[in-house]
Amino acid sequence: MDDPPQLLQLPDELLGVVICHVPTAADTAAFGLTCRRVRKVVCSSPVWKQHCVTTWQHWDPKHGLSAKLAQPPLQTDWRQLFLQRVDNDLEAALVFKDLVSTQQKRLHRMHEIAEKGHDVQDLMLNLRDRTPDQAEDVLARRWHADAILRMMHRSRAIEVWRRFQTGDDVSTEEALCAFDTFVLADRLGDFAAVERRLDSIAQSIRDKNVDFDDKTVRQKALLIAAYLWSEGLVGMPALLPDEANYHALRNNFITMALLSPTHASLPLQSVAIYCAVARRCGVMATPSNFPRHVHAVVQAPPDQTLDGQPKTSDTGPEFLHVDTWQEPHQLHEDQLRLRLLQTGISAHDHDRQLGPADGRDTLIRASRNILVSVNNARLHHEGGDTPSNEQPYALDPAAAQYAAFWAMSLLVNNNDALAPQRREFLQVLLQQFHNQFPEDFALIQTWVLPMLEGSLEYGQMDDFIEDIIEEDSEPKEPKLRAAEFVEIQYRIGHYFEHRHYSYKGFIVGWDVECKAGPGWIERMQVDNLRRGRWQPFYNIVAEDKSQRYVAEENIQVLREPPIEALLQVAGRYFKRWDDTEHKFVSNIRDQYPDD
Fold it and tell me: What confidence category does residue 497 fall into, taking pLDDT thresholds of 50, 70 and 90?
């Protein structure tokens, strides 16, 4: 009988060492198929631990990965865990394939994948970032993968605000970073990355000031502010401080301020960064309630003054007011009180305005700042200077507005005095959900419907959501060109420029005549058009992501490749851009089979 191969003459222990040097999981599995003995060694090899942590960066908390990594390797069945993650990816990939290939149950399938949470994040990132340009449905894959990732991040942000609102242990900076999670997803980093950056800044301050612990609270507070300013981590050191740049949307996000190449932030975010670093250095600091320009309120210990002297009377805590946004300096209380009087705020309300802000008020203020910036972005197009090295992190004003109304709706919940405001917030929130984020139907069911319970709007909203779910579940009713007596000149996917207003967009639907209501027809002066209301009208998506209804006579088809702003949203409706046909390839053929 022939001798076994030299490799199999090795004892199991050395064979296991060899297996640990097989580079990929696929190669390891293939090696295990060579014979029974190798399979046995492969199945019990700790190499699967390495394959687990290198194949997937994101893990659902249910796996307890950190605890498993701290244990001896053989205490966990790493191969079984690897196979579990592979099965999960395969299942999600099949659902994803179905959702991009048919309109029916598309929202349901997006929700089904998003429900898997962290365990599908790597798969979605690969689909979004690594789908080749030559793929037959490249735009659809990238857009839907990104949309699912954003659904997951919105859900996480909402959970943070919910815990913050109910009094759970959520810091102000974490609640503010939930806006970043909601809008930026993970393009710059998650809250853990922000925490690591804040920890690093605090440690740098201590390293540069070896006698830091010997200083008074006042000295520490001003030293921290001076360090942040000198490092360009607060204020707007890198941008021209004009009105457009001051209200630029990017300045509302702590992640952008700390982790992007250009550090710039509004006073509220600068103060939040300062307070987070101060707390890590043992200094109690909170954003203020002061109108217009937020500053930091530093509090001395109960038994000491700001200058380290023992307190001789029970007069309450001593406060230090620090402006961290401009070149750091102490703000004197008498000057602040004078400014409050000059703005019409009565003296009996001064203590509240000068004291530490309630966390909920800080977040509502942040939400309102975002809405101001969204309006500014629409006025100035890009909302101030967008440095070229930040183009990959360009912010979506619609998503930012959506985040602001979600936060305000959650934060004023259960407050009867703010019920009228809540109704106003919810009205805009639901409008955005319907027009731009219908995939969030489960979030609306879970969090918004309970807010409406007992109101007249509850039944209407419940029916509205059920209609969306039902419409998604049923086959689309096809609109056939052959069934129409009027020639529909343009097709789904045509890229065009409006003849009068010059904005660009693409066609996602059509009617043989204007189907809008009489009010819209009158307001838009449709009957004054050359061909009036009886010409075909087209549902279009414009470059600002708005959905519009355009008369055929105002459509001017373009043959050039579409602009980047439209390519980013085209995947909701289309598979790819066809350079030969000079139009997008439709992915809504269930509804428009002839297009």
Answer: very high
**Which residues 6+ apart lie within 8 Å of 507 measured at CB?**
490, 491, 492, 493, 494, 496, 538, 539, 540, 555
Domain boundaries, position 434: 412-473
pLDDT of 392 higher than 60: no
On whether the CB atoms of residues 488 and 536 are closer than 8 A, the answer is yes
Q: At 7, list the tokens.
A: 């490799």
Q: Which of 193, 61, 155, 103 is nearest to 440 (CA)?
A: 155
Contact by Cβ (8 Å): 443, 154: yes
**Who's near 339: CB < 8 A, 6+ residues apart?**
none
- The answer to whether 281 touches 224, Cβ cutoff 8 Å, is yes
The pLDDT value given to residue 29: 65
Parallel, antiparallel, or unpaired: how do β-strands 495-498 and 537-542 relate? unpaired
Place of tokens 């967009």: 505
pLDDT digits (tens, 9 = 90+) for 266-322: 999 999 999 999 999 999 999 988 777 888 899 988 888 888 888 877 777 788 888
DSSP 171-235: -HHHHHHHHHHHHHTTSS--HHHHHHHHHHHHHHHHHH-TTGGGS-HHHHHHHHHHHHHHTT-SS
Q: Please indicate, yes or no, if residue 445 is contained in any of the structural domains.
A: yes
Which 3-state string (H, E, C) describes 33-79?
CCCHHHHHHHHHCCHHHHHHHHHCCCCCHHHCHHHHHHCCHHHCCHH
DSSP helix/strand/coil, 495: strand
pLDDT at residue 52, as a whole number: 85
Among residues 83, 118, 144, which one ends one of the domains?
A: 83
Burial class of residue 254 (count of CB atoms within 10 Å of its CB; 0-12, 13-18, 19+): buried
448 and 488 both lie in a single domain: no
For residues 248 and 373, is the Cβ–Cβ distance under 8 A?
A: yes
Task: Report d(CA 263, CA 232) in Å as an integer.
Answer: 6
* Dihedral sign of CA atoms 395, 408, 144, 62 in order: positive
Domain identity same for 354 and 207? yes
Q: Look up the CATH number of the domain holding residue 503.
A: 2.30.30.390
Q: What is the pLDDT of residues 77-100, one digit of tens each?
A: 888 888 899 999 999 999 999 999
**Helix, strand or coil for residue 537?**
strand
pLDDT tier at 27, thresholds 50, 70, 90: low
Most confident of 306-310, 342-346, 356-360, 537-541: 537-541
> d(Cα 387, Cα 384) in Å, to the nearest integer?
10
pLDDT at 363: 94
- Long-range contact pairs involving 543-546 (C-beta distance under 8 Å, separation at least 24): 543/503, 543/504, 543/505, 544/378, 544/503, 545/396, 545/398, 545/436, 545/569
Q: Do residues 443 and 494 both lie within one domain?
A: no
Burial bucket for residue 212 (CB in 10 Å: 0-12, 13-18, 19+): middle
Look up residue 532 and give its DSSP letter: G
* CA torsion angle 116 121 123 127 (round to 10): 120
Domain boundary among 473, 498, 520: 473
